[in-house]
Amino acid sequence: MVRRTKAQAAATREALLDAAERAFRARGVAHTTLAEIAAAAGVTRGALYWHFRDKGDLFEALCGRVQLPTEAMLACAGRARQSDPLGLLRDLAVAGLTALAADPHRQAVFEVVAHHCELASEFPSIARRSHDADSGCQANVERLMKQAVARRQLPRDTDTRLAAFSLSAFVTGLMHEWVQQPAACDLGRAAPMMIDAFIAGIRARPPRRTAGARGRAATRATRGAPIR
To answer: I need a labelling partner for 34 at 20 to 30 A (CA). Which of 75, 147, 176, 201 fits?
Structure first.
């Protein structure tokens, strides 16, 4: 009997999380009430409060069911030196996109986090988690860009910070756009092609540290300013 009760409680909790996921995605976090979530899950408000203290607790549990896309990329990156750092960056980016494409729960949570709530004001712990994952992912991407320079996959004067920011922005932008327009492409199939195009561009025309300095010097020269 105890086992059955625990199983029923677990099933109720999952039903509430599924209902919250659908409601938050459709109406946003702020415009969804706990009563609506309980009704959608087919339980009483008392049952909801038995599992979750409030909406914030429910939302944190919902986010806890999945890895955010940047967390997934970060978890796969590791810290060892790589023989093919650009190849690893390519594989990590493709894996992040295909994982999103394959997991409806991850899609829903990503869309809610990205588009349907004010994280900083409503859910500071989720905001910190998202910020830490983004920052950690960015740092690992730059670390691998520096390894690519050391391996002569990229020129010595590559602006690795700008290259890392560009790749992170490209992948994150694809995620944001796709969850809003999933019919635009089969993300699982298109991800390798899109990332290969980006990596080919980085190989052929990487951002250079000296490019900005040359551009600023040229601008000062045309204005008659002394060049330092």
So the answer is: 176
d(CA 67, CA 46): 29
* Same-domain pairing of 131 and 169: yes
pLDDT in tens, 15-50: 999 999 999 999 888 889 999 999 999 999 999 999
Contact yes or no for 73/56 (Cβ under 8 A): no
Poorest-confidence range of 94-98, 192-196, 215-219? 215-219
Q: At 170, list the tokens.
A: 């490209």
**Do 73 and 55 have their domain in common?**
no
d(Cα 94, Cα 29) in Å, to the nearest integer? Answer: 30
Residue 6's domain comprises: 2-64
> What's the start-to-end Cα distance of the chain, in Å?
81
> Do 10 and 36 fall within a single domain?
yes
Statement to judge: residues 200 and 91 lie in one domain: yes
Q: Which amino acid is at 30?
A: A
Average pLDDT score over residue span 173-182: 92
Q: Identify whether residues 10 and 29 lie together within a single domain.
A: yes
Q: What is the value of pTM for the model shown? A: 0.77
Q: Any idea what the Cα angle at residue 102 is, between residues 100 and 103, rounded to 5°? A: 70
133: Cα separation from own chain's centroid: 8
Residue 225 has phi, psi (to 5 degrees) of: -85, 150
Distances (CA, A) of 207 to 14, 24, 173: 47, 40, 19
* Residue that finishes a domain, picked among 16, 43, 64: 64
